[in-house]
Amino acid sequence: MSGAQTTEQRTHVRNSRGRLFLFGIAIVAQVAWLVVLTLRLRDYSVWASLGLSLIALGIVLGMYGNSAQNASIKMPWFILMLALPILGVTLYLMVGLSGSTRAMRRRFQAIDE
User: Fold this and answer.
1) Residue 29: count of CB within 10 angstroms of its CB
2) Which of 88, 92, 98, 99 could form a disulfide with 80 if both were Cys (CB 3.0 to 4.6 A apart)?
3) Would you state the torsion angle of the CA atoms of residues 82, 54, 52, 90, taken in this order, to the nearest 10 degrees?
4) How many domains does the chain contain in total?
């Protein structure tokens, strides 16, 4: 019986490492993007930033139309995605859409009822 728990714990650690790695890549990509914008793409930076912001805005509007989520859950995502589009969208796709958060939300809704 303890062997199954150890296997499960290893699986959780492996999943956590993957998410941490993806989060690290998102942070590096966001910083690299800001550096590239300031150094190399001065002429095109406005259009590139506008494009990324429009993508983030599209996701935000999609979230806004989803009435299944509470506004207190949506607002931090809105702020993060609009302030830092690359990092915000990556984090939302990693954490905000995961099945574990949906299951947890269903549990909380069942408790509230």
Assistant:
1) 13
2) 88
3) 60
4) 1
